[in-house]
């Protein structure tokens, strides 16, 4: 087990290096320069002035030199400084990451709690009215864009019924934990419902496949109750695939937070990422992508360890 975990952990290093390289290269391919934003307040900005500042900031150095400097800073724990407020990029992220992380975790809980039971019910009542209703609702929900779903939820449950705040977010420190959770309920549902539909369909498909296996027929022939057959035998062997979908959905939830935050006027990491990209704030954008990448890789590592615990026969080659 220890050898498996060590090998799987070491494999995160080249994966993270590839991600860093791609993000670094793609950011430099985006048209424009952060210097134009930095000099916005000055009068009569000239090309010579822009080139002078770019040279001072190292943007005119060879790309490999810039990349080496970036890796060196990361290794020494320096994630960089934002070009626009002269604060550390990690400090800027800490200031806004609370709503983003809460929304992602909240949406994941909604996805798991709703989707897995619905998928199991749909599989165990195959070709019934319940199965058709679940399939129809899943397809419909998947077709609705997240921002559109967010606007509809905001209109009915916030504007019309007044159950939730329409827009904005106040931190846990100011309002308390449960109030903050209540304020983020609509964004979490808007972000999670698309994943609910997808996970429910995967759960249904996997359950149907497992329920047709010989060992399930044997369990039924022994006289085991339907509950034991479904939840003790079938569900356990379904969780490997379902767990992978859940792990992948976390990355989608973090990435989709930007749109949801814009709809509900929440200042989070998604909004910061969009603003940083628009300003060509290389250091800040790279730090946000790196953070999301680390979270995604750690979640996948945890899922691999979970698979190993569930099935000791799994080996990493």
Secondary-structure blueprint of this entry?
Blueprint: H1 2-10, H2 12-29, H3 34-38, H4 47-57, H5 63-75, H6 89-124, H7 129-143, H8 146-160, H9 172-175, H10 177-183, H11 185-211, H12 214-221, H13 226-263, H14 269-278, H15 282-310
Helix pairs in contact: 1-15, 2-15, 6-7, 6-11, 6-13, 6-15, 7-11, 8-11, 8-13, 11-13, 13-14, 13-15, 14-15
Notes on the protein architecture:
With 317 residues, this protein is mainly α. The protein has helices spanning 2-10, 12-29, 34-38, 47-57, 63-75, 89-124, 129-143, 146-160, 172-175, 177-183, 185-211, 214-221, 226-263, 269-278, 282-310. The longest helix has 38 residues, at 226-263. It is globular and about 85 Å long. Helix 6 (89-124) packs antiparallel against helix 7 (129-143) and helix 6 crosses helix 11. It has one domain (89-310): Orthogonal Bundle (MetI-like fold).
Oligomerization state of this entry? single chain
Question: Percentage of helical residues?
Answer: over 70%
Order of helices and strands: HHHHHHHHHHHHHHH
Q: What name does CATH use for the topology?
A: MetI-like fold
**What is the count of distinct domains?**
1
Mean pLDDT: 78
Features:
single chain, mainly alpha, MetI-like fold
Short description:
The chain is mostly helical. It has helices spanning 2-10, 12-29, 34-38, 47-57, 63-75, 89-124, 129-143, 146-160, 172-175, 177-183, 185-211, 214-221, 226-263, 269-278, 282-310. The model has no long low-confidence stretch (mean pLDDT 78).
